[in-house]
Amino acid sequence: MAIENTAIQNKLVETFGDNVFNFQVEKDIFSFEINADKNTAIILFLKNNEDLRFHFLTDLCGIHYPDNNDDHQFAVVYHLHNWYDNKRIKIKAFLNETPKIKTISNIFLSSNWMERETWDFYGIDFTGHPQLKRILNMDEMISHPMRKEFPMEDSGRTDKDDRFFGRTSINS
Amino acid sequence: MSELLLSPEHRYAKLINEKLNEDGSELSILNLGPTHPATHGIFQNILLMDGERILEAEPTIGYIHRAFEKIAENRPFYQITPLTDRMNYCSSPINNMGWWMTLEKLLDIEVPKRAQYLRVIVMELARITDHLICNSILGVDTGAYTGFLYVFQFREKVYEIYEEICGARLTTNMGRIGGFERDWSPEAFRLLDVFLEEFPIAWKEFENLFERNRIFIDRTVDVGAITAEQAMAYGFTGPNLRAAGVDYDVRVAQPYSSYEDFDFIVPVGKSGDTYDRFCVRNAEVWESISIIKQALEKMPAGNEYHAEVPDYYLPPKEDVYHNMESLIYHFKIVMGEVPVPVAEIYHPVEGGNGELGFYLVTDGSRTPYRLHFRRPCFIYYQAYPEMIKGALLSDAIVILSSLNVIAGELDA
Amino acid sequence: MSDSKINMVAPPEGVSGEGFFATKLNDVVGMARANSLWPLPFATSCCGIEFMATMASHYDLARFGSERVSFSPRQADMLMVMGTISKKMGPILRQVYEQMSEPRWVIAVGACASSGGIFDTYSVLQGIDKVIPVDVYVPGCPPRPEQIVDGVMKLQELVRSESVRRRSSPEYQELLASYNIQ
Asked: Which residues contact B32 (CB under 8 A, 6 or more apart)?
């Protein structure tokens, strides 16, 4: 192991102060949270710093937390990977109920479609994205279906009787 | 039907109106539409062409979006396995095992060595079948139908092995938390031995048909080349990345299910073109055959096939009828009232196309709070418009086949 | 070769004589059509792989007359829809169906094409019979190649017994009108 978790933490804290916080090791991935408006700066630092070298974006996704307070309604999760030292980290940025965060598609080309998918599912606006439109759902769709308030089933379907699935107006 | 036509507001329509070549010829738009025999799966590409040469491409996907991630939020953990089957359906055991390993990481369950070796065997069989389809379909796209017919016979033999293990041919839904649902019968091992004897001969013949074939080399060398830096920037993993020269393999970087016990090389190409991708997949099939043989030799004795975790593993039915404890466990497991910690897990496995990752967020209830699949096809297909810039139309088809884009994994 | 290996299919009912055989036009046309159904494989997902296995040498669909797989709707007789059809894909499936010329038949292969399958979600069409009329449904997830062949054989029965005038009959026109297909 070339870089230790404490080394990463120290480097980040001394460069970004209290924009990075809540460092922990969750089941073998070192993860921390950041302030949403500093995401491009932090990710660029992680990519370009010659000790850290997190050059590969593994994954980018969104999560909806309707039960949290207003500032933590949505989260964007970045998974980065350093192949030289075989180290993974996870970054979480919480957003409020009108989620807006800067795009990282100029830092990592692979995040282009991942951000479009997150916009499609959650309505998280990635400012500066070259082509933020729906990718998996139909273009005419207005809702963002992965949000918790939307049901999985198409409510307009007529061939399946909800009573046979145990769904009533109370629990559906 | 007008919504299926290209709107005149579209960028390409405007470009055509503006640009006229010196000899008076115009640019044209070609719709490599969602239903096309050569695109294996349904995705659309609108191509802006200058004669036979492609200038730009605009892909549209989502024609088979089945909302896996939304379904997963409403299903207990063991009911999500059929969903994982249908992502990369050419190699469903790998997806299944990846999901079970994610759960075992969540619940801190240690799987016995023998079950891990059995998992390795079935995952490598799945990898063989995935590369088998990809390479034979690449052959069909360049006009060689024989390879496909010949090699598909062996896919039938693998289907027979899957049927012995779990009962299904294609979408296997194999395994349980902690191992397998039943031990492998002697018939399964016999079929495996027969396969390991006959398949290498057939694969050698298949390779000989293509690797020195003048026509195939003309169609695939220097077609769709991608450099290592570009590949890493676009998030490539798997055989497509290894063809560009980077030897990243999840089985080596983060070994799971006892892969560290096996001795195998990771084949790597040089220029990242279609021919290299073809050859890397061929070589990986040989490595998989060798891993299966090693696993069979080193298989621990005994007949343990699952971990002893009564909280999560269904007890045998005879015990359920006679034993109060087993009855209670059975009831709790089927109802989904099993103890699940609150955690966030990311577990990658080496799928047929690259790093297949499972990002699971639980909140202690019987269904996941959020389950996100890191699908390799979705991520590397972004590079397709870049790869076909300046290529001929026939090259675009061959590049698409060699990328092995599987629609189920693309859209999920 | 002994006769026991060769299965001679009985000819349709008719009057035969020295050098001629007279039967109904329906029977002859039905027999010809049933034994030369050219499929259009509309393969979208996992059932498509089982179709590839059906076309391959082990289960060989070509012996039933489906030798030439056509990807152009204008040249195909039967549309085999294999795999999940999402709402985004619905208009495209309909356009492909409308481009086929009469007589045309549709087989819905797999649970997803028949009724939406295990995907009871907002984005999946719950069965292709919401957009096009279907003749044969083959259940399964995915159906075994034997089941797909069975579906084709059932379609052959339908084709063999279909009247030559069916496509211009008022019932058929009504069926198409109920789907808004001209």
From this structure: B39, B44, B45, B46, B47, B396
Number of domains into which chain B is organized:
2
- What pLDDT was estimated at residue B310? 86
A5-148: CATH topology? Beta Polymerase; domain 2 (3.30.460)
CB–CB of C123 and A137 under 8 A?
Answer: yes
CB atoms within 10 A of CB A143: 11
Q: Which amino acid is at B205?
A: E
Q: Is B209 in the A-facing interface, judged by CB distances under 8 Å? A: no
Q: Report yes or no: B358 and B99 within 8 Å, Cβ to Cβ.
A: yes
Q: What is the mean pLDDT of residues B12-31?
A: 79
Nearest to C88 among A138, A154, A160 (CB): A138
The model's pLDDT over B340-359, given as tens digits with 9 standing for 90+, comes to: 999 999 999 999 999 999 99
Give the DSSP per-residue string, B165-215: HHS-SSS----BTTB-SSPPPHHHHHHHHHHHHHHHHHHHHHHHHHTT-HH
The per-residue pLDDT for range C54-68, each reduced to its tens digit, is 988 888 888 888 888
Nearest to B116 by CA among B278, B291, B245: B291
| CB-CB under 8 Å, B62 with A135 | yes
Reported as a single tens digit per residue, the pLDDT across B283-309 is 999 999 999 999 999 998 888 888 888
The answer for residues whose C-beta is within 8 angstroms of residue C11's C-beta and 6 or more apart is C21, C23
Q: What is the CA radius of gyration of chain B?
A: 23
* Residue linked to tokens 């640009």: B19
Assigned token pair, C71? 């990807």
Q: How far is CA A11 from CA A5, A7, A16, A36, A79, in A?
A: 10, 6, 9, 19, 18
Q: Which residues of B touch C49 (CB under 8 A)?
A: 89-90, 133, 170
Residue of B86, B92, B158 to mutate, testing the C interface (most C Cβ within 10 Å of its Cβ):
B86
Tokens read off for B30 = 């070609």
Helix (H) or strand (E) holding B69: helix B68-72
CB contact under 8 A, C123 and A145: yes
Whether residues B320 and B221 share a domain: the answer is: yes
On whether the CB atoms of residues B348 and B359 are closer than 8 A, the answer is no
The pTM of this model reads 0.92
Among B63, B237, B365, B370, the strongest candidate for a mutation testing the A interface, having the largest count of A CBs within 10 A, is B370
Is A57 in the B-facing interface, judged by CB distances under 8 Å? yes
Same domain, B327 and B229: yes
Task: Give the start-to-end residue ranges of the domains of chain A.
Answer: 5-148
Q: Is residue B24 domain-shared with residue B151, that is, in the same domain?
A: no
Write down the pLDDT at residue A27: 83
Which tokens go with B238?
């798997």
What phi and psi values does residue B209 have, to the nearest 5 degrees? -65, -30
What residues in chain C have their Cβ under 8 A from chain A's Cβ atoms? 87-88, 115, 120-124, 126-127
Residue B37 near chain C (CB below 8 Å): yes
Alpha-carbon span C109 to C48, nearest angstrom: 9
Topology adopted by domain C26-155: Rossmann fold (3.40.50)
Token couple for A114:
């991942």
Distance CA A23, CA A8 (A): 10
The two three-digit tokens of residue B263, written as one number: 């001795």
Task: Report the amino acid identity of residue B365.
Answer: S
Which domain range does residue B52 map to? 2-60
The reply to whether A135 touches chain B by the CB within 8 Å rule is: yes
